[in-house]
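User: These chains co-purify. Model them together.
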Amino acid sequence: MLLATEQLTRRYAGLIAVDAVDLAVPDTGIHAVIGPNGAGKTTLFNLISGLTPPSSGRIVFAGSDVTGDPADRRARAGMARTFQNIRVFNSMSVLDNALTGLHPRLTASLPAIVTRLPGFRREESAAIARARAALGLAGLLTRAHEAAGALPYGDQRRLEIARAMAGEPRLLLLDEPAAGMNPAERASLAALIRAIAAGGTTVLLVEHDMPFVMGLCDSVTVLNFGRRIFSGPPAAARQNKAVIEAYLGPKVAARLGGAA
Amino acid sequence: MSMAALDDLLWTYQNVITALGINGLLALSMYVVLAVGQLSLGQAAFMGLGAYSAALMSLKLAWPFWAVLPLSCVAPVAFALAVGGPTLRLSGVYLAIATIGLGEVMRGVYLNIDLFGGALGLSGIPEAAPQWVIFAVLGLALFVLWRIGRSGVGRAMEAMRLDETAALSMGVNVRRYRRNALLASAVLAGLAGALSAHATSFIGPNDFGFEPAVSILSFALLGGIGSPFAPVLGAWLLTLLPEVLRPLADLRLVLNGVVIVLAVLFLPRGLLSWRMPRRAM
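Assistant: Joint model of the two components:
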């Protein structure tokens, strides 16, 4: 397993946002955490990426316990993420955004930077090449020198993915990547995610759009009210009574069950 | 202009020229913390520690200036490390207020401990800092900060200024950057203090209180933080303005206040909003 959470729990005053969730993400493929609004998906992502400390439970990434590690250390260990509400660096160029994503790969020392030793120059041009490759993957190479904040919405979402991919992570966490996209943008996003997985990066995404997930993912984990109610292949999730109830409510689920 | 006339000019305005160099360094000391998105107003306190420790090394120990100057960073850096832990957990106005408080504490220490000369301050400090040294230090600081700003480190600094959460998720060690920015700020302000003490031969507790802290902030607010040159330009304008407008010299603080208000309202990115290019290769 590349990533595993064990009994992961996050309590807020009077609310358990994530309740003893066990999640296992294999070394390859595309995996999803789905659930209705308010199911705790984004909280789970923030726990995994280290932006929110857990109340209890454990997170194991690539064989080591990262539960106590801050977000930046997890990023340097090979975890990259995007955000549900886009967080590109607006006033920086598209290329600079992508370059920031490979910050963990830069090792030049301060004296090397100040004196511009050949090692620093080599590293910087290699970084630019890598950032441009990530932009190429996301189809943003022609806009490399535009301000990120000036890009259309869909492109900003793709830039977040390019920025996360520039550091060549082992695990890519996508928080509602299809939110606010039209069907054409969704299709090209799905192609991009497939290309990323084919390149060897494991993808874990959070979505509440079932059709988007069904055609794309190798496995899904369904959350409802912070609890895991299902884990398995997407086709089985579709048939699962608890999942249907969570999405449609018990009454509709019962009616569908009666009709079938 | 003949050489004699030039010498005359330089002599007449040597205090102003010295102030341009010192204030330029102080503006850079402000710049390094603003560049990582922190609002720390401890620069005047750092400067005071540099000035007092350097003055004491010269007066009490009679150490040569070339040894005193680098050692003048020690006290400000130690102070920055000591306050760094607790204050770096603060941010925004809370950090600003905490650092102003620390500056006032130091002023109380200078006033009440005999070693620091009390309200009279320390005088008779050897005038060992020629102007060219001041400007050499300023030039070196500008050069180093320019090179850093154009590297991946500068990119990470800008990223954490724009969106700290996103920067963290990109693997930027935000805590270390904040601490290092504070240490760099302490070094620059400490050097400015030591140079200033050895250029004017007198220092007093009120040179490093709340008023200078706000003046230093206004340098960076007026100039901007798009590149290290911007805050230095701001410092130079605010240093020269009272000289040009002699009758207003007594209103220097009023002028600084007005500049801060106008800069915040109309020039949120400062006078020099131009950003440094980051790819020459």
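The CA atoms of residues 22 and 192 of chain B lie 5 Å apart.
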